[in-house]
Design a protein that fits this description.
eight-stranded parallel beta barrel, 8 strands, about 270 residues, homodimer
Chain lengths: ~270, ~270
Amino acid sequence: MTRQQLIDQITKKGSYLCVGLDTDIEKLPAHLKGQPDAVLTFNKAIIDATKDHCVSYKINTAFYESQGLKGWEIMAETLAYIPDTHFTIADAKRGDIGNTSAQYAKTFFEVLPFDAVTVAPYMGEDSVRPFLEYKDKWTIVLGLTSNAGSFNFQRLPLEHKNGKQLYEQVLQTTCEWGTPENLMFVVGATRASDLEYIRSIIPDHFLLVPGVGAQGGSLEEVSKYGLNKDAGLLVNASRAVIFASSGEDYAAAAKKMAQEYQTEMSIYLS
Amino acid sequence: MTRQQLIDQITKKGSYLCVGLDTDIEKLPAHLKGQPDAVLTFNKAIIDATKDHCVSYKINTAFYESQGLKGWEIMAETLAYIPDTHFTIADAKRGDIGNTSAQYAKTFFEVLPFDAVTVAPYMGEDSVRPFLEYKDKWTIVLGLTSNAGSFNFQRLPLEHKNGKQLYEQVLQTTCEWGTPENLMFVVGATRASDLEYIRSIIPDHFLLVPGVGAQGGSLEEVSKYGLNKDAGLLVNASRAVIFASSGEDYAAAAKKMAQEYQTEMSIYLS
């Protein structure tokens, strides 16, 4: 999917919501547990219920890998079920030396035809480049994450850089390898004020913002500081949407939550 | 596998060689290409040929994931074929927020019963902890890698730390989360002199050293600076061993290479 196609979808829907399919088998509604294909049934119902209110789905690969072969099968079937109009993200946080990253890129852009994959920056340029070489595909590099551990390394100030922190250098250096047409960044929502600063460093790139909802981020603040002239945001909600109810009404409850996000987002967009 | 069991294997064999099963389907010997189960046939022959000369096998998950479901099946079958005496590593470079890392730990310690998994440190403590919680399993955290991109971020000097570089901080901070009984580090071999310095920071931990062979590192230098009283090294060779020959004699050629490493290692150990 191109940047313009993504922007068009956001404009059309009045939504920059990404629904995270972190489908934890332990958290499925009781009536589905133990059924064959419970995860796939759940995912399809969630997609049917939310697709009019979001522009993107993010599949957290860890929850599928941990189910073994069956999990990879369900990941492929879930991806195939997502409408072409929606921007699909493999949240896989891969990254290795060049010849190995090329294999990961093949996995998530060819074998499983996602639009985007998340990538960890620690190993540097040759670990990111193979992903960027695919036309009309997107590389979403970890910038500043929303978890407690982001303070261990991402926020360390660098020498001779006027107090610049590691994550800022990651944003700036990585920008040299790609363009706003094929590169996004993960920026957590737990400190929305950081977003204002990040927007001053990277005004044009799309940001994938997790941490709204279950992790406590505020959609209003994220939107205030994160939106740019092209929207430039994909705000992800996972548990807050897909596990909004643990009863038989889980799909309706997910729809209601997604719709609430959409209604709020349409205000911030206008 | 416990630390003592690993040390015993190294002592018994006079080898700290880890054979990397980066089985690139494009590089298989011509007579195997196109055969059903070519990768599995190849891996089994390599394991049979090298098992007396190495103490560990490292499966680079990227090369299996890129083959889709079939690849995951072959990864499982390869792992099952490796003798219990050998230390098995999933070179997967995973890492995410806590609930997601817990799923990855389940994948590589339970669903696929590896002894160890490689983990990327960028997201900090809660991304590493879930792996460390497994008894008699190992977490191998990226410290200083051997690729060109290691200069982008890993070697950046930090402020107010007397010139300490990011990777040094990663080694020191991560050491607080685990022990030499459940934590190792990836340290690349391309600049062996770095190893001397790294040994002064972490004298006790095992180091997994890639980059010997195809990537140009010297086994002599790595051993000189990296060995400690318990050996403390696993030196990985992938392409240099498994693709030593592209002909029908590939297994014999791999055995010869592994045996050469073992012979040299036994000298450094004594």
